[in-house]
Design a protein that fits this description.
2 copies of one chain form a homodimer. With 366 residues, chain A is α+β, with helices and mostly antiparallel strands. The relative contact order of chain A is 0.15. In chain A, helix 2 packs across helix 3. Chain A contains 8 helices and 19 strands. In chain A, a hairpin with a 7-residue loop joins strand 11 and strand 12. Strand 4 of chain A pairs antiparallel with strand 4 of chain B, so a sheet runs across the interface.
Chain lengths: 366, 366
């Protein structure tokens, strides 16, 4: 891909936050990546520019018909000061799957990874280095046509913004409380559930707000057809340890194919643990729990990596999982994946990609 | 509602387009209405300002999680130069229903109608006056928080933009060709199908594009659960004349409650025609057609008002409806509703609201 990336220097750099102040996605770095699409030119004008507001016509497609896809991944600082990305190729492949569903022109996956690396290298000083901290990377594409007919946009913008984020857990993982949502539905087969697109998250807000009011952390989504089968938890995939096996809902068109999900499955198989991707009915799950066979429950996602579930409610049934503590397997998966991400554990699976800081910075065409 | 609406004059007004150039939603007027929401102030700073780009932080909720609702209605020019809105109270009531589903703070319906009237009065010269033409009004609300956590935004913008639009049909109504979509799904119960929100339209683009490639104008959506029951056509509601009765899918949580749909049902009842809001299976519909009992099919919506369907395809079954022509009932409904909208037919139902041009213009606080 011959396209070059131009760089426009900011007049003024922001003060870096103290590491105690990092939350999730509230602070943004000094620069962002931007690229435009038109039917005539394709994706063009790749540039790294000062982070700042974007200007759009009020009739732009994104404001009316939600034509959008996004991704989320992280850059990690190792103890020896290198910077690693975790499986960015998986994120970019998924972004193109999402583009396909949302009628958005595909991206050159390798080129966008190159853009991410260049932007991260320029913003190296923003990557926090305490345990669990990282630089969150958010690429997204929006339709920008100023036209109200319900049609795919002819023009788009791809942006990448960066946010230094704190450790999801404090000193130790804390299991979350979830309940089975039986009124609201996140997605259904034939819809956009497998795509990482704005509308899925918009649809989830009401149930999430309800769960917080009821004193829970997240909702467990059921399928939209029979309201019987488990799909996801909040915005994570979900796993169940049943005796010595691990079950997770099979990808069915309405579940997001998580990068952490795929990584957990690969690790478990490598460790000789039976993983079953299958339809998991909530009824069967609660029966397994009654028989003391449900040993651990955990969510997987880029933000928390592994999020143990300590408490599960479905109608009048309540389960305390692993005595409300973090299970051994959950802990081992967390330690292994975060170990690979932070360079503490050797990456035998080729999951990480190093950002060559000096080389990337030098290659910026001013 | 004591809130006043400020007005900022544009330096330069655009040239008005010739009536031949009007399409749908491609041209916008000189001014727009804007209003902001914050937790502390509620909806505030109502203003009419020159139409132009809006600036948003790239982390704004709308770009990532699609928190958005919109409405669509029209202002019509009567022969005696008055300006009428068609049932704006219904649109605003629906906007609040959409807000509720999308976790967006509710609007003061009467105040937003007042804002619409003021804006339309100021832009009076943009209202086209040939038959079938009108000024399309698009109010919409977007979440604007610069934060990547998946939570409802704490800040919002409500905008109203105006677009002069051409006649949907030329000299006579032309029936459309539709096919039954059996792969993609628009919405499911428990989701956001009944709300007028961006994500529903994003999800529909792929099927719409497919239908155009196959030589059809629109798709007929089936329910997301059993893929058996008819929901909507494209972005319209749908009606079937079966012998002397009229059937339309009952509102079930995944169908948009159209203002034109409600108006058609009221008119039919007034005319003594039996209207059944019920589950309509595609199988039953095609059986009725086989027995020559399916007399007319038409879609209803703000854009076309009544859109006759002349050709219907489901798997290998094909129906030509009303010999591919516009049925008598479709024509009568179209003539009646557009007659009321344009002031040609006396509005005995109290559906229209006149925009008091002089009064509204005088009341603008500069």
């Amino acid at each position: 891909m011959g396209q070059s990336i131009t760089f426009k220097k900011a007049d003024h750099l922001k003060e870096k936050p103290g590491s105690a102040k990092l939350g999730f996605g509230k602070l943004f770095t000094d620069y962002m990546f931007e690229m435009d699409y038109s039917t005539e030119k394709g994706w063009h004008d790749a540039r790294i520019v000062p982070y700042g507001p974007i200007q759009l016509d009020p009739a732009a497609t994104i404001f009316h018909y939600g034509q959008e896809v996004f991704e989320g991944l992280k850059a990690y600082r190792t103890e020896d000061k290198r910077v690693l990305l975790f499986r960015p190729d998986k994120n970019m492949a998924r972004m193109n799957q999402s583009c396909d569903r949302l009628n958005i022109p595909k991206i050159d996956e390798k080129f966008v990874i190159k853009a991410i690396k260049k932007l991260v290298a320029i913003e190296e000083a923003w990557i926090p280095s305490e345990p669990g901290q990282s630089l969150y990377i958010r690429p997204f594409i929006i339709g920008t046509d100023a036209a109200l007919g319900v049609h795919p946009s002819a023009t788009y913008k791809l942006l990448i913004i960066l946010s230094p984020v704190g450790a999801y857990f404090g000193n130790s993982m804390s299991p979350v409380k979830i309940y089975v949502e039986d009124e609201f539905v996140r997605a259904v087969k034939g819809g956009v559930g497998y795509a990482k697109t704005a509308g899925n998250y918009a649809a989830s807000l009401k149930a999430q707000t309800k769960s917080e009011k009821l004193g829970f952390d997240q909702v467990l989504w059921l399928d939209g057809v029979e309201h019987k089968y488990i799909e996801e938890v909040g915005s994570m995939n979900i796993f169940f340890k049943i005796d010595d096996e691990v079950w997770t809902p099979a990808l069915n068109g309405s579940i997001l194919p998580g990068v952490t999900r795929a990584s957990v499955i690969e690790l478990l198989k490598k460790w000789g643990i039976t993983v079953k991707e299958k339809k998991v009915s909530v009824n069967k799950l609660f029966k397994k729990a009654e028989k003391q066979k449900l040993k651990e429950v955990f969510g997987t996602g880029t933000a928390a990596v592994i999020s143990p579930v300590g408490f599960l409610k479905w109608e009048d049934h309540v389960i305390k999982v692993a005595n409300g503590k973090t299970g051994k397997l959950s802990q081992k998966l967390y330690d292994t994946i975060t170990g690979i991400q932070s360079g503490k554990i050797e990456d035998k699976l080729g999951w990480t990609q190093e950002v060559k800081l000096q080389k990337e910075k030098e290659a910026v065409a001013e």
